[in-house]
């Protein structure tokens, strides 16, 4: 269906401050990305994110007299589809026409803010795919290589044992709804 | 291209067509300030153009290489030069600019061309007697 083409951008949030983890939530991240796009691409970029998929652009502007809108823009094209606060993985969705705007604005996200706390961070773009499935396949492969790299960078024996145990114990099980890559969490922290 | 040369002699002429090869585009614009207030000087005019780009196209737009080649303060008309890839951004930003120092204003684009020489004559202003 050519009219509904989307692009999914997979990125990870990297921060030196461990408290930034708690800021990784969809609203804070969505606002930070939108803000970066507004700074870098102006009103045109912001409109490209707010346009809905049905074709008729819905803007979150003030409605006519007497209409009270609970949420400003119900359907927007820029959406945070998946978040993992432990690994800092974020999956963003956007229209195919404007994914270059999004990708070029991601390096300008410098901090995340939530509950009146702001922590510096940056976003690393890992993969751009056309469907969620391709991004998931990439993420599985990426996570396995990252775990192996963490194993090599272990400083003491205890961490090494911990990671080895978790590597050997994880598996893809059919009955769980989530696939295996989300069950692995870092042995080091 | 010359004749296909199936058994003919070497081509007598050669034609080359270059599409969109111009590096810069030139625009002749005029700023309309209906209230008779202070007129911007050349630096303020350029600042206005860059501000218009920044509002519509953000930092990327404001970083476009735009030059004000000539500026007449009396008539508020100028010739702008912009790199060809930023032509659409510049024209759209000029179109959507509404205010200069909280005063109503509007940009009128009179002529555009990839060649500067083409801006010297304007057939629209020709008076036919």
TrEMBL record, chain A:
Location(s), subcellular: Nucleus
Signal peptide range: none
Main location (coarse class): nucleus
The keyword Transmembrane appears for this protein: no
Keywords of the record: Nucleus, rRNA processing, tRNA processing
Gene Ontology biological process terms from the UniProt entry: rRNA processing; tRNA 5'-leader removal
Family: Belongs to the eukaryotic/archaeal RNase P protein component 2 family.
Protein name as catalogued: Ribonuclease P/MRP protein subunit POP5
Organism: Tychaedon coryphoeus (Karoo scrub-robin)
TrEMBL record, chain B:
Coiled-coil annotated spans: none
MF-aspect GO terms: ribonuclease P RNA binding
Record-level GO BP terms: tRNA 5'-leader removal
CC per GO annotation: multimeric ribonuclease P complex; nucleolus
Source superkingdom: Eukaryota
Keywords attached to this entry: tRNA processing
Family named by the database record: Belongs to the eukaryotic/archaeal RNase P protein component 2 family.
The protein, known as: RPP14 protein
Organism: Tychaedon coryphoeus
């Amino acid at each position: 269906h050519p009219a509904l083409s989307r692009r999914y951008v997979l990125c990870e949030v990297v921060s030196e401050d461990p408290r930034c983890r708690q800021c990784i939530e969809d609203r804070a991240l969505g606002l930070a990305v939108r803000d970066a796009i507004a700074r870098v691409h102006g009103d045109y970029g912001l409109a490209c994110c707010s346009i809905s998929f049905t074709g008729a652009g819905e803007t979150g502007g003030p409605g006519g007299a007497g209409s009270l809108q609970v949420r400003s823009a119900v359907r927007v094209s820029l959406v945070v589809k998946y978040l993992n606060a432990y690994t800092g993985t974020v999956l963003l969705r956007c229209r195919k026409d404007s994914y270059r705007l999004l990708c070029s604005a991601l390096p300008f996200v410098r901090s995340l803010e939530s509950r009146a706390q702001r922590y510096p961070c940056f976003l690393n773009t890992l993969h751009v795919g056309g469907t969620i499935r391709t991004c998931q396949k990439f993420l599985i492969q990426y996570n396995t290589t990252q775990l192996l790299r963490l194993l090599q960078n272990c400083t003491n024996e205890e961490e090494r044992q911990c990671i080895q145990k978790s590597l050997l114990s994880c598996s893809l099980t059919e009955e769980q709804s989530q696939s295996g890559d989300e069950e692995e969490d870092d042995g080091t922290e | 291209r010359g004749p296909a040369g199936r058994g003919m002699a070497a081509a007598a002429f050669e034609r080359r067509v270059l599409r969109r090869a111009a590096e810069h585009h030139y625009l002749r614009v005029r700023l309309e300030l209906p209230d008779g207030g202070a007129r911007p000087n050349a630096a303020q005019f350029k600042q206005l153009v860059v501000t218009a780009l920044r509002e519509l196209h953000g930092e990327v737009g404001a970083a476009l290489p735009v030059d004000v080649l000539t500026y007449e303060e009396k008539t508020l008309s100028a010739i702008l030069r912009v790199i060809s890839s930023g032509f659409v951004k510049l024209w759209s930003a000029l179109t959507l600019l509404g205010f200069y120092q909280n005063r109503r204003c509007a940009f009128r684009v009179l002529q555009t061309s990839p060649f500067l020489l083409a801006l010297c004559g304007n057939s629209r202003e020709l008076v036919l007697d």
